[in-house]
Amino acid sequence: MLEGATTFETFGVWSILVVAIAGLLYAIFLARQILKEPTGTEMMQDVAKAIRDGAEAYLRTQFRTIIWLIILLAIALYLSAHLAGEPLKISLGRALAFVMGATFSGTVGYVGMNMAVRGNVRVAAAARKSFSEALRIAYRTGTITGMLTDGLGLLGGTIIFLIYGIHAKDVLLGFGFGGTLLALFMRVGGGIYTKAADVGADLVGKVEQGVPEDDPRNAAVIADLVGDNVGDCAGMAADIFESYEVTIVSAMILGIGVMHYLGDMHDYRWIVFPLLVRAMGVLSSIIGTYAVRARGEQENAMKAITRGYNISALTSIIGFFLLAVFYARDIRFFWATFTGIILAVIINYLTDYFTGTEHSPVKEIARSTRTGSATTILSGLASGYESTVWAIFVIAVAILSSVIIFAGEPALIFYGVALTGIGMLTLTGNNVSMDAFGPIADNANGIGEMVGLEPKARKIMADLDAVGNTTKAITKGIAIGSAVIAAVCLFGSFTEETGIQAFAINVVKPQVFIGMLIGGAIPFLFSSLTIRAVARAAALIIDEVRRQFRIPGLMEGKVKPDYARAVAICTAAAQKELVGLGLLAVLSPIIVGFLLHEEALGAFLAGIILTGQLLAVFMANAGGAWDNAKKTIEDGLYGGKGSEAHKASVVGDTVGDPLKDTSGPALNPMIKVINLVSVIIAPIIVRVSRTPSIRPYIYAFAAICIVIVGVAIWYSKKEAHFLPEEEA
After folding, report:
1. What 8-state DSSP symbol labels residue 724?
2. Structure pTM?
3. Distance between CA 69 and CA 380 in Å, rounded?
4. Does 2 reside within a domain?
5. Taking 50 as the threshold, does the pLDDT of residue 726 lie above it?
6. Domain range enclosing 104
7. SS3 for 266?
């Protein structure tokens, strides 16, 4: 298999493959468990079926929208390797790995969402019996998605390594790009869908009509419940999967680079150690997630979830230490991966501080609602801006730790950062379980309200829903932090591919400075387009919900609203944006690289990583803080539901919705798509810069790309339309 590998390494790589399959088998085991649980009354099953049908129809439409782009990009990846002078085996392998990465990412999103929309009604049914049963079903349903993420991410990287060995670098790029691109589509589409429905349902239902959140008379309520699944289950699962995937890819690529640097191509620990760490993480996640259960009917769900997370973390840390000492025989490997876990813990704390209801930022926003919507929005903006500063400092310290750990060998610093990313996402199974738990509990609560379940069951589901809001916020923080670490690793891969070092990127050169400026602007353009998309779609939903509230007999409960129409509006609005935003992410580095060359492209990537991180954290934390400020008021603070403070808090929440659930999280895969495309095209750019005769053709191609991006932006900014009221 691997020439010169030790017996332990050979056994270890095959064991990693077995562990990846074990993670998938654990997901199947949990799925069979969940599907055996009771589904409640016929009315509960009807509501759950409407949610399931809407979610599945949305994803089917999304996959049909993007399949042609996946095929075209697979061909482009084959050609990119061929033009860079790679042999047929590598060129074809890159294209097939791209398809595999996209398929795995889509599978994680689709299957995870599919189980979530089957688990929600089972959680609602269990809540009629006991809190502990409802918690167990909700968390284990989310764990299915977590173990799919772990298993498929590890499986893909290991298979490619087994086939290609030390020549796997270029093929791994295709695998990472496939997963990241699908995550971008799932994240953007799901985010637009869920927030259009949420904003429309809240503004008309809560503010204008004064009805509860999941009132069955609200035409957008099913679309809102569907959106929780396509946004937070399918979208976030694919998002974290691609971070998990990209950190493996970058660690292996940089590990191969270290082997070249050290001149020992048989020293496989630089590649095998990250895979062994990830396998340890899969086993730790299985142990920790299965341990999540309430110790009594009065225990807070967050305590049970945290206990499982801590068990997994402790198991992983012990495993890291043993691998570093007895296999790698280099304690620096342990400190680098351990830094990743510490980084995850600190980001969890920061996210909880700036979005949690018991801390001063949310309390300050809640107080500001007493003086109206404007002060509510200003308070949230201030809190979000502050939070992003602390987050960037923490990530800077984590990167600095790699500088300190590998101080004697500067060439290993980027590899140390990659190990930090590996450590940070070791507990991906737990993180995704926590994230998926949120929409499952939210859906269960919605089903309970729509069918009028008993107060005891409603209280249990409301408590689970509140904990779910916290777990979702924490997962967003982890996803954003890991995105930056992964992007820094890819930046290191880019400098290796181009032959330039990061310190050699001279921003004094005009074209290099221009590259940095353009890179810094791209996240703002991307965010503008996604926020505008949510605003347009929400406007359509608002008009539709208002129209249906005017239907005679609807408010009295004599007539049912047309839920399917709101679902159709959200689905159409989300699909409209996918291709244009995807093209912006894929083509912008090609334009900069071909026109301004590799050094400017390096500055372009640096600009994107910096502003993308700042924007993503700001939007995620500001949105989460507005959301939780609203919840504290709904619990009775400052007059409770229906008060003027409540109305102001709803406005703040609806402003924050597209920030925290669409634009902010969508920046994660966008940053990595652009970095991966840059690494893939880097050898071509270097070749072009040394071959003046083909430059006119390259400039012509770049001009065509500029036109395509311009048309995509113009199309994305067009007003959305649906059937006029008189045709409805």
Report:
1. -
2. 0.85
3. 38
4. no
5. no
6. 7-727
7. coil
